[in-house]
Specification:
Blueprint (H helix, E strand, L loop, with lengths): L4 H9 L1 H10 L3 E2 L14 E8 L6 H10 L5 E4 L4 H12 L9 H15 L2 E4 L6 H15 L4 E7 L22 E2 L4 H10 L3 E4 L4 H13 L6 H14 L32 E5 L4 E4 L10 H9 L8 E2 L4 E3 L4 E6 L2 E5 L2 E2 L7 E21 L3 H19 L7 E6 L21 E10 L2 H12 L1 H4 L5 E19 L4 E8 L7 H4 L3 H17 L23 E3 L4 E2 L2 E4 L2 E8 L5 H7 L2 H8 L11 H11 L3 E7 L4 E7 L19 H6 L2 E3 L3
Parallel strand pairs: 2-3, 3-4, 4-7, 5-7
Antiparallel strand pairs: 1-19, 2-8, 5-19, 6-15, 8-9, 9-13, 10-11, 11-14, 12-13, 15-17, 15-18, 16-17, 20-26, 21-23, 22-23, 23-25, 24-25
Helix pairs in contact: 3-5, 5-6, 5-15, 7-8, 8-9, 11-12
C-alpha cells in the first residue's frame, strides 16, 4: 500500500550507513549456533528489572540501582506490540523510530550504573536502534562520561550484503520486525563489554536471559539451565507486577494491603546460579509484596499453554513450576524444564497494516433518567450515521462509562439499577474503512449539543488512522541480525569538565535525583499486614469467584489470557468442575454487545460473533491453578479495539465477579 512506502524510503536513506556497519561487523542469521568455548565469568549473576513497560518510572529504577548493591545488570523492557505500532506511526510522520524517553531514562540511571559497574540493557531502540545509540552517546558526552554503547538489531542484509527483502519476509525495511532471541545481546557482551546495549524488537525474556547466558557460561544446548533462566526472565519482565504492583484489591481479604505500601514498591531482581538455581527478590524491607501468589500470577501472565511457553531461544514447560518463600523479600523458584521440541523452528514476525479509521465521541448526562438520555443520544447518532452512510451502523459500538463499559456485571444489568445511576458518560467508538466516515461520525456526534436530549455536556471527540501488527512465522535462516558498537567522545572544548573524576560526576548526578524525591516519598517502615491463612471455600452455596481465587488478565493480539489461582490450593479440584469452556464463553459473551441498550437486531450480532470465540483451559499442577485462553474476544486486539479497555486487563474482574457453586 502507498502508506507503507514511507518507511522503505526512510530506511533507504540510511542504507549506506547500514552497509558500512555490515562491512565492519559480520551479519548472522538466526539459526542456532553453539557458542565457541563459552566461559563462566561468575558463579551467580544478579539481573534487575528497571522497567516493565514503556510508561514505567525511572525513579523506581534508580532506587533499585541504589539499594540492591549486588546488581550486575539492569534491564529496561519498554517495547510492546502497541508501542511498536506507535513508533511505526511516528516514523511514517517523520518522527523518531526509537523510544523518545531513552534520554530521560539514561540521564537518570547512567551515572550511577557506570559507577557501580552495572550494564544497562534495553529494547528502547524499537525500529531505530542506531538513532537511540546516537542519542545516548551525545548524552554521555554532555555528562563527561566515557562509555561504550552497543546495538543489536534485525538486519536489512544477508551474509553477502544483499537485501533480505523477499516474498516471505520483507524485513525491517517495510516496518516489519521479528522477535529476536538472546544471541545478538550475548554477542555484544562477549565481544565489546559495553556499558549499554540497545536492541530492536527482542523477545522480552531474551533481554534478561542474555546476561545469564554470558556470565554463567551457558551454551544454547544447556536446556535445563536455559529453562530455569527463562523462568527467571519471564517473572522479571513485567517489573513491579511481581512485587505487589497490580495485585492489591480492597475487598479481597487475601489481596488487601494499605495504599501506603505501594509508595515504596520495589522493582524485582533475580539471583541466578550457573547450575540454574533461581531466586527472585525485591529490595530489603521495601513495600509491596513478593509471595507465592504474586509469582503465580506473573508465571501465567500471557503464556498461553504453560506447558509450551514459546520464546525464540527455548520452548519451556512451566507446568510443574513451584515457588517457596525464603523471606518476605525473596522467593525460590524451581521446576521449569524444556518442552519437546525444545526450540521453535520459526520466529514470529510482526508487520504493520492498515486497519481503518477510528472515530469516537463522549458526552455526559447527570441526574434524573440520565441513562435514558444517554440511550436517546446513542439512538440519534446511530440513526444520523445510517442516514448519511447506509449500512455503516454496525461498525459502531457504544457503552456507558461507570455503568457497563467494562462489562464487570456481565449480562445481569438488573444488579445495577438504572435508578441508581445519576452520572452517565456515553462513549461511542467506530472503526471505519474510510477517513470520510470517521470524520462524519465526529461531526454527527458533536451535533448532540443542539440536536440531542437535554443536559448533555463535556463532549470530547477524535479520529485517527489505526495500524495493526499482523503476524507471520518465518524460518530462522531468513532472519538476520547485526551489531554495532561506538564509544562516547568528550569534546576537546570541554576538557576541563572531562577531567572531573568519574565518581564525582556520578555523585553529582546521584544527589540531583535523590533530591527530586527525598522530600517526598521515603522508605517506609510500615509493616505489611499479613493476609489471613487461606481456608477452603464453602460448597453448595452461590458465591462470587473472587472469594475462591484470584486472577490476572493479559492479551496476545485478539486473544485473552486469564489465570485462575485458588487462594486455597486444594480447591483446584472443585474449580476444574466449574470452570469449563462453556462457563467461560458464557461469562465473556457480554463483551460482544454493540450497545448498552440492545434491541433484537443488536442481540443477534453478538450471537453470531460468539460462534468464533474459542476457549482453551490448561491445568498447571505445580501451582494448583488453571490458565485460560479465549480466542477472538478482544475486538481485533489492542491496536484497533473499539473498547475502553483495549488490552482486556479489566476482564480478570469480569471473571472473578461471576457467581459459582462449588461441588461437595
Amino acid at each position: 500500500m502507498a502508506n507503507l512506502l514511507f518507511p522503505c524510503y526512510s530506511y533507504a536513506l540510511v542504507r549506506s550507513e547500514f552497509r558500512e556497519a555490515v562491512a565492519l561487523e559480520e551479519v548472522q542469521n538466526c539459526v542456532v549456533k553453539l557458542r565457541s568455548n563459552p566461559q563462566r565469568h561468575r558463579n551467580k549473576v544478579y539481573v534487575g528489572c528497571g522497567a516493565g513497560f514503556g510508561g514505567d518510572r525511572p525513579m523506581a529504577a534508580l532506587k533499585l540501582l541504589e539499594r540492591v548493591e549486588e546488581l550486575n545488570y539492569i534491564v529496561l523492557e519498554c517495547l510492546a506490540e502497541r508501542t511498536l505500532a506507535d513508533r511505526y506511526r511516528v516514523m511514517m510522520s517523520g518522527g523518531k523510530g526509537f523510544d523518545p524517553r531513552v534520554k530521560e531514562w539514561l540521564s537518570v540511571l547512567l551515572p550511577l550504573a557506570l559507577d557501580r559497574g552495572v550494564c544497562i540493557i534495553t529494547n528502547m531502540g524499537a525500529i531505530d536502534p542506531p538513532g537511540a545509540q546516537k542519542e545516548i552517546l551525545n548524552l554521555a558526552s554532555n555528562l563527561g562520561l566515557e562509555i561504550t554503547v552497543a546495538i543489536a538489531y534485525e538486519s536489512l542484509f544477508s551474509h553477502s550484503g544483499n537485501s533480505v527483502l523477499s516474498n516471505e519476509s520483507s524485513g525491517v525495511g517495510q516496518g516489519r520486525s521479528t522477535y529476536l532471541g538472546a544471541a545478538p545481546i550475548v554477542h555484544c557482551l562477549e565481544n565489546y563489554k559495553p556499558h549499554v546495549v540497545i536492541t530492536s524488537r527482542v523477545a522480552d525474556a531474551a533481554l534478561f536471559l542474555a546476561p545469564m547466558v554470558y556470565e554463567l557460561g551457558w551454551d544454547w544446548n544447556d536446556f535445563e539451565e536455559l529453562a530455569q533462566g527463562t523462568l527467571a526472565s519471564h517473572l522479571l519482565e513485567c517489573g513491579c507486577q511481581l512485587t505487589g504492583g497490580y495485585f492489591t484489591h480492597p475487598g479481597d481479604a487475601y489481596r488487601d494491603f494499605s495504599f501506603e505500601q505501594l509508595l515504596d514498591l520495589s522493582l524485582p531482581y533475580a539471583e541466578v546460579s550457573y547450575k540454574g538455581e533461581v531466586c527472585v527478590g525485591k529490595e530489603k524491607d521495601s513495600g509491596g509484596l513478593l509471595s507465592y501468589s504474586t509469582c503465580a500470577e506473573q508465571l501465567l501472565y500471557e503464556v498461553g499453554d504453560p506447558a509450551n511457553y514459546i520464546t525464540p531461544d527455548l520452548v519451556v514447560d512451566f507446568s510443574d513450576v513451584q515457588f517457596h518463600q525464603i523471606s518476605k523479600d525473596k522467593v525460590h523458584c524451581k521446576g521449569a524444564k524444556p518442552s519437546n521440541p525444545c526450540r521453535p523452528e520459526k520466529l514470529l514476525q510482526l508487520f504493520p497494516n492498515e486497519s481503518g479509521w477510528k472515530g469516537w465521541g463522549e458526552i455526559s448526562y447527570g441526574g434524573q433518567e440520565c441513562l435514558r438520555r444517554a440511550q436517546a443520544a446513542e439512538y440519534l447518532v446511530r440513526s444520523w450515521m445510517d442516514e448519511r452512510y447506509p449500512g455503516i451502523e454496525e461498525k459502531i459500538v457504544a457503552y456507558i462509562m461507570g455503568y457497563d463499559s467494562l462489562k464487570a456485571i456481565g449480562g445481569n444489568k438488573d444488579s445495577c439499577s438504572a435508578k441508581e445511576v445519576i452520572d452517565a458518560r456515553l462513549r461511542m467508538d467506530g472503526l471505519f474503512d474510510q477517513e470520510e466516515h470517521a470524520d462524519g461520525f465526529v461531526q454527527e456526534f458533536i451535533a448532540l449539543y443542539t440536536n440531542g436530549p437535554a443536559g448533555g455536556g463535556g463532549i470530547s471527540t477524535g479520529q485517527k488512522k489505526e495500524v495493526i501488527l499482523q503476524k507471520l512465522l518465518i524460518d530462522r535462516e531468513n532472519i538476520f541480525w547485526q551489531v554495532n558498537v561506538k564509544n562516547s567522545i568528550i569534546p576537546s572544548s570541554e576538557n576541563q569538565s572531562a577531567n572531573i573524576e568519574k565518581g564525582q560526576v556520578c555523585t553529582i548526578q546521584k544527589k540531583k535525583y535523590e533530591g527530586s524525591y527525598a522530600t517526598g516519598i521515603q522508605r517506609l517502615t510500615t509493616n505489611l499486614k499479613e493476609p489471613p491463612s487461606p481456608v477452603s471455600a464453602p460448597s453448595g452455596s452461590e458465591i462470587a469467584l473472587y472469594h475462591v481465587a484470584h486472577s490476572r488478565a493479559g492479551d496476545k493480539g485478539n486473544d485473552l489470557n486469564l489465570s485462575i489461582i485458588p487462594h486455597f490450593p486444594d480447591d483446584i479440584g472443585r474449580l476444574r468442575n466449574v470452570i469449563t469452556p462453556h462457563w467461560v464463553k458464557n461469562a465473556v459473551s457480554p463483551l460482544l454487545e454493540f450497545s448498552s441498550f440492545p434491541n433484537d437486531q443488536a442481540t443477534q450480532c453478538p450471537n453470531n460473533l460468539l460462534e468464533h470465540v474459542l476457549v482453551e483451559i490448561y491445568d498447571v499442577p505445580g501451582i494448583s491453578s488453571l490458565n485460560i485462553v479465549v480466542r477472538n474476544i478482544l475486538d481485533g486486539g489492542v491496536n484497533c479495539s473499539r473498547r475502553i479497555d483495549r488490552h482486556g486487563k479489566t476482564l480478570s474482574d469480569l471473571i472473578l465477579s461471576q457467581k459459582v457453586i462449588l461441588p461437595l
